[in-house]
Write a structure and sequence with these properties.
This protein is of the alpha/beta class. The protein folds into 3 domains: 2-249, 3-Layer(aba) Sandwich (Rossmann fold); 258-601, TIM Barrel (Alpha-Beta Barrel); 626-762, no CATH class. 19% of the residues lie in helices and 29% in strands. The chain has 16 helices and 41 strands. Strand 13 (221-225) and strand 14 form a beta hairpin. The termini are far apart.
Length: 764
């Protein structure tokens, strides 16, 4: 049953319980699921619920389908432990082999965290009771072979409010449970249930200990899913539970939310609706296309906010569906300084799995449903529809798709991960598998061809920097690999929300989705499509985005700010105003605006980053790529020892955590902490900056010189050792600013985008 371990990603794996010097801390969690329960990791409980808080804690998840074999992890130093969260009625194909595997890594001191069913009770291959008791014994627990089925008179003699009762208390009808006792005195019980006041019925429902952690089925989260309701709440605090279960104390966390002391802001546009005609009064007389409206109203009007613009190559290629005006607007958009160029595919696949191992004949039955020209011409019915004016394409999708959007253009809205109905949606039929079928599907054309086509509309000094997934945003492994081969990151999918309609951390997605050895980076927030009933109403709905932005910033910062929309938002006044509302909101926040491709590379850096403990208490940060922030939680009284550290440009405190900003010019940084605030810094230390900073040089208590670049005016705050006047110089601009209480604040630079050298010099 034990399979051969495969490589995870093309990154080096690592991070988290203290090992010997020069060995990176283990950060990898092995997630096991049963492929008979879930057709894709997207539907698993671990991906839907657990992976996001694990990412926040600095852990990365590697998935294995138990049907394909389990990895030998007993000797893998990068693996911290295993997480299992089977559905209630899971039946394992080889429970004894699974039990042997659990024994192998628990003996190697790997953590074992299991939620819900143990998966050991099989009617086909029943295990001896002795084997089952051994399993529980390894966890410091004992199965009393008793079942509490009536739970209406439960009491909880132990209820640890720091771990349970997070988003919802244990009320109403509760799940039946097995009577489990804690036999190891090191077990920390967080929830203990008692029936009818009888101590003999005491059962551990939530606990952590040296082995890892355990939550009884139905006591981790509450969920209602049917045709009228999508409701989720965490019973347990997943951040605290996983922190305790995996034995994470104070350790460095690669952070993807913050850069140089400011919350990251990025924005990206999918090209859907590029050629649609706007309804706006001031433009529609000239039959202005939506892409031009977006350029004028949402991009040129906001020069201080960078945006990544992606085009569907078919929309700007006259051999497909492009027109002269399509190409003209493409050149306009990609010439703007604040615009980063990206591809949104060539033909806009709706269902990527349809094209895995694709044969042209597979698409023939769907060609009659296209309202645009297809590679086998047009049917008589299509010609009639075109003749009578029914060729109304809505934001890059066919009318047939629009009327059956749940089947074809189903966004990554969460499903009931425990229901067969939710899992089977991925297998439903669709009207058309992609938006355009002018030519047969070719993966090379879809990936590299689309990038080359967009590149042809860019000025000589600008390159296509990102590939943005389309449709269901669930690409197959080979497609992701093709995008990576181009040397550019990829992004989209996830559809995270945290607002009044989706009021739980359980609706916030992890950083990425793993497909074999590849990683698809998720967008940080959902787009306007999920706010507008799949673009069928509530066109103002995207104004609700700030709810998610606020909830993912406080009381825990778990996401950057991401304003993600489509070109079809330029179609209606209400949708256009909704995007403006979000952009205006972003300008009121303390942000560092960056390109979307940089955020995707920061996520890549999260996976590649290695954190090596040094014998004298420091931390070496290696292979971090573009990730430049390391976070220490529960560090409100600590500070960086700047004199001993290397490659650190600054630090600041937020929500009890210490965020350390690293210098991108230093390949391997070293961080030392002290248990009190450093009152006299040896050189100016950055607190926050709205521009990126690197190559700190000429550092002393008299000043510092750095390179920096960004959008809009450069707003900075520095800690200095002296109060008095300082000279701030950037190119031909110079200011004298006075520091107060060891803090130097200033704004310099007025251009929309700039890259310069900045000098801070003492005048006393």
């Amino acid at each position: 049953m034990i399979g051969i371990c495969r490589n995870f990603l093309f990154f080096t794996l690592t991070v988290f319980s203290i090992l010997q010097s020069e060995e990176a801390l283990p950060r990898t969690v092995i997630a096991v699921y049963n492929g008979e329960d879930y057709p894709d990791i997207w539907f698993t409980r671990i991906h839907q619920y657990a992976e996001m808080p694990l990412n926040h804690l600095g852990l990365k998840v590697e998935y294995y389908d138990i049907l394909s074999g389990l990895p030998d992890i007993s000797s893998r130093e990068d693996v911290l432990g295993v997480l299992v969260w089977f559905p209630k009625y899971t039946v394992l194909p080889d429970p004894e082999g699974y039990l042997d595997w659990v024994e192998s890594f628990t003996k190697a001191k790997k953590k074992f965290v299991f939620l819900g069913s143990s998966g050991l009770h099989s009617l086909d291959k029943p295990l001896p009771e002795r084997k089952i008791q051994e399993f529980w014994k390894w966890q410091g627990l004992k199965d009393e072979d008793n079942w509490i089925s009536e739970t209406y008179e439960l009491e909880f003699p132990v209820l640890d409010s720091t771990v349970v009762g997070f988003e919802r208390n244990y009320i109403d009808v509760l799940h039946p449970f097995k009577v489990i006792k804690a036999v190891d005195p090191q077990i920390k019980v967080h929830l203990l249930a008692r029936k009818d006041g009888d101590p003999s019925t005491d059962s551990v429902l939530v606990c952590t200990g040296p082995f890892g952690g355990y939550i009884s089925e139905g006591y981790a989260k509450y969920e209602v899913f049917n045709k009228t309701e999508n409701f989720r709440k965490w019973y347990v605090n997943p951040f605290r539970f996983f922190e305790l279960a995996f034995g994470l104390k104070q350790y460095p966390v690669p952070d993807t939310t913050t850069l140089f002391g400011k919350r990251i802001y990025y924005s990206h546009i999918d090209g859907d609706g590029w050629n649609s005609i706007t309804e706006l009064e001031k433009y529609r007389r000239n039959k202005t296309i939506c892409a031009e409206v977006v350029a004028r109203e949402l991009i040129e009007a906001y020069p201080d906010l960078p945006v990544t613009v992606s085009a569907i190559a078919a929309d700007i290629d006259t051999a497909w569906e492009g027109k002269a005006v399509s190409k003209q607007v493409a050149r306009l958009l990609f010439s703007l300084d604040q615009v980063e160029a990206a591809s949104h595919t060539y033909s806009h696949p709706f269902s990527w799995k349809f094209f895995d191992n694709f044969r042209p004949e597979d698409e023939i039955p769907f060609l009659e449903n296209y309202l645009t020209k297809t590679w086998q011409g047009n049917s008589y019915w299509n010609k009639l529809k075109r003749l009578f004016g029914y060729r109304e394409r809505l934001h890059g999708k066919d009318v047939a798709v629009q009327t059956d959007a749940e089947k074809v253009y189903r966004p990554n809205l969460p499903d009931d991960t425990d229901s067969e109905e939710g899992a089977e949606k991925i297998l439903e039929k669709y009207d058309i598998p992609r938006a355009f079928a002018n030519y047969p599907f070719e993966l090379d054309l879809e990936i590299k061809g689309s990038v080359d086509k967009v590149q042809s509309f860019c000025p000589d000094n600008k390159q296509v920097m990102l590939y943005q997934w389309s449709g269901d945003c669930q690409p197959f492994e080979k497609a992701v690999a093709k995008s990576r081969e181009l040397g550019i990151p990829n992004l989209n999918g996830g559809d995270s929300r945290f607002d009044s309609a989706f009021n739980s951390y359980a609706w916030v997605r992890p950083l990425s989705r793993n497909i074999g050895d590849q990683v698809q980076v998720y967008a940080s927030c959902s787009n306007e499509n999920t706010y507008t009933d799949l673009w069928r109403g509530r066109y103002f709905g995207f104004k609700e985005l700030p709810e998610t932005l606020k909830n993912t910033d406080s009381p825990i910062r778990i996401r950057p700010i991401n304003v993600y929309y489509h070109m079809y938002s330029g179609e209606k006044l209400s949708s256009l105003n909704a995007v403006k509302y979000n952009l205006d909101y972003a300008l009121t926040q303390e942000i560092i605006p960056i390109e979307t491709s940089l955020f995707a590379r920061i996520v890549d850096g999260f996976y590649s980053c290695q954190l090596v403990p040094i014998d004298d208490g420091g931390w070496k940060v290696q292979n971090r790529g573009e990730l430049q922030t390391i976070r220490f939680d529960r560090a409100s009284t600590q500070d960086v020892d700047f004199a001993r550290s290397k490659g650190v440009v600054g630090a600041f405190h937020l929500q009890g955590s210490l965020y350390v900003a690293l210098d991108p010019a230093i390949e391997d940084a070293v961080i030392y902490l002290v248990d009190e605030e450093v009152e006299e810094v040896p050189y100016p230390v950055l607190v926050e900056s709205s521009w990126r900073v690197w190559n700190a040089r000429s550092r002393s208590d008299e000043g510092i010189e750095v390179s920096c670049k960004g959008y809009g005016p450069c707003q900075m705050e520095w800690r200095v050792s002296k109060d008095g006047k300082w000279q701030i110089t950037m190119e031909d601009e110079e200011h004298q600013v006075e520091s107060v209480d060891g803090v130097l604040r200033f704004t310099i630079g007025k251009t929309a985008y700039s890259e310069n050298s900045l000098t801070i010099k003492s005048l006393f």
